[in-house]
Amino acid sequence: MQSTTRTMLEQMLAHYDHTISKNEGGPSDVELMNARFRDLSMTVVEPMMQAFAEVLQAHGHETRVFGREMSVSPGGFAQHAETVMEIRPRRFGDNASDGFRIAFQMHTDCRKVLAQVTDCGSEHTHYVRPHDIHPLEGVTPEMVEAELLEMVGYVFGKVDPQASMVMPA
Description:
The protein has one domain: Aspartate Aminotransferase, domain 1, CATH 3.90.1150. The protein is built from 3 helices and 7 strands; from the N terminus they run ααβββββββα. The protein has helices spanning 3-24, 29-58, 141-159; strands at 62-68, 71-72, 78-79, 82-88, 100-107, 112-119, 132-135.
């Protein structure tokens, strides 16, 4: 082995060892944020989505609520942790969609939660409503409820453009 190759290898391994030793000392910031998001998802977001889903199902719409942990593929693609409610509205003529995904997604790079609606009918993610971004610390039951009401209203406005969403005062 050439001395320059050995030096480069030693530097790589020293960096790796340093990184591992930092991680062994406790959870990283990203791990702490994901744990906080997981707690909020289980105690606030998912129960609120389930409550909305029950009402939607009572009116004949298909729903599914689930969560996903953050993951990284071998290629380095990161899937953010998220809590999702899929809605498949009853058919309403040609304007009916294959469905929508309402999600609260943790973005650890900016320490914020993204609230978004995407269309399930396309192969690629297609945002059907401008998304909102909230600081992780600002995720409260009231915020989640308001976002869900707005996003569900948007979904059903897309299915029936003639429908008007009356928001309570």
